[in-house]
């Protein structure tokens, strides 16, 4: 349970870092970042798999690049739902979602990977 809470806080901090690095994404408060990280996690767990299955032919046709479009649209959707989290357009959502994915990948790898023996 503590690991899940820590991961949520780290993802919210990653969202704040995305907003700091890229001007097309804005987060007003840490609470807004927490809510956006929570909603983004729920959307990625529930809606994203359905969209990936529904768009599988297009994803195969584009050699997997359509996944970036799905991620950007979901990132943009969360920005429309959560107050205090704003994305200026589709390209900002695309760049923001890629940055967010890379930052959360690196932080999860650094903080939550099991130590080597």
Automatic annotation (TrEMBL):
Protein name: Phage holin family protein
InterPro entries in the record: Phage_holin_4_2
Regions crossing the membrane: 20-43, 50-78, 90-112
Pfam families: Phage_holin_4_2
Keywords: Membrane, Transmembrane, Transmembrane helix
PANTHER family recorded: SLR0284 PROTEIN
């Amino acid at each position: 349970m503590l690991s899940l809470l820590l991961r949520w806080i780290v993802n919210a901090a990653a969202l704040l870092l995305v907003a700091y690095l890229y001007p097309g994404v804005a987060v007003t408060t840490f609470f807004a970042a927490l809510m956006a990280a929570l909603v983004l996690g729920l959307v990625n767990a529930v809606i994203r798999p359905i969209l990936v299955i529904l768009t599988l032919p297009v994803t195969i046709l584009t050699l997997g690049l359509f996944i970036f479009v799905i991620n950007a649209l979901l990132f943009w959707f969360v920005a429309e739902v959560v107050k205090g989290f704003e994305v200026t357009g589709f390209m900002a959502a695309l760049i923001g979602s890629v940055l967010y994915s890379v930052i959360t990948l690196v932080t999860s790898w650094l903080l939550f990977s099991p130590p080597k023996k």
